Amino acid sequence: MKTAGVRRATDLLFSPAAPPATGSLIALAGLRLLAGLIWLYNVVWKLPPDFGQRSNSGLYHFTHLAIEHPVFPPFSWAVEHLVLPNFTAFGWAVLFAESALAVLLLTGTAVRLAALIGIGQSVAIGLSVAESPGEWPWAYAMLLGIHVVLLFVASNQYAAIDAVRAATTASALRSKAQRLLAGWATVLLLIGLIAGWRGLAGSWPAYVGIRPLEFSLGEYNLRGALVLVAIALAMLAAAKLDQRIAAFAAAALAALAAVSIYVQVGEPSVWLGGTNTTAVIFVCAAVVSLAAGVKIGRVERA
What we know:
Number of strands: 2
Order of helices and strands: HHHHHHHHHEEHHH
Transmembrane segments: 21-41, 136-159, 180-200, 220-238, 245-265, 271-294
Protein name: DoxX family membrane protein
Keywords: Membrane, Transmembrane, Transmembrane helix
Largest sheet: 2 strands, antiparallel
Oligomer: single chain
Shape: globular
Structural class: mainly alpha
Radius of gyration: 21 Å
Number of domains: 2
């Protein structure tokens, strides 16, 4: 018995046979979520309204590196003559693209579209900074490679809105929608509780993540943490009670929270204590609640 188990483990590691399909799909979903977390962290320093132009910091600094340390001269020319003269519009476009990437990848929505956007964004970032001092060019090759993989494989079969949309029976649709709502509700509830605990034990706004590892799930003051907990509880109620009105209420509250942050981001005080990363978390909550709520509402009851 023990020998057979060792043999199976050895075959899995060293033989060319494919691993179990379920394990592969879960691993690919993990890769998708990892890519989403990368973009989630990186939106935090794209700060409107000038995106670092006046202080030569942030997005403006990294964009200007394409001119100071060119990787591909025609690209550097385009940055100097087309991007920098219209930098504010460019900054908003970058913030929108990277926020959309985080939302689409983390929620598993239109994953192949997200992969295409990620490929374009990875190429643009690599051509901007790959030759700059302190940068590691292979990091951008890996970022590009991740999105190429996501374009061609099924990374949206688990923890994904795409999987809910692809359900072929009413029972499967209901089950997948409820699991997605409950899963996200659990994550959001944990974020809200951690933010509350850290804020009460230290200071507000509370950072949820690990700064040295550049891992962030947002910053929240007490109001922001309470709003996030309320959204999570509404999503959990929608999942457990099969009530789409609760899902729609969660979506509306999350959308309002995200809008309030975007309106105030870059100002000294934000009403919910959030950043661009915080806003993306609320957008994810809104997208999942709305998408799952609509599907629950379409299920015909016996």
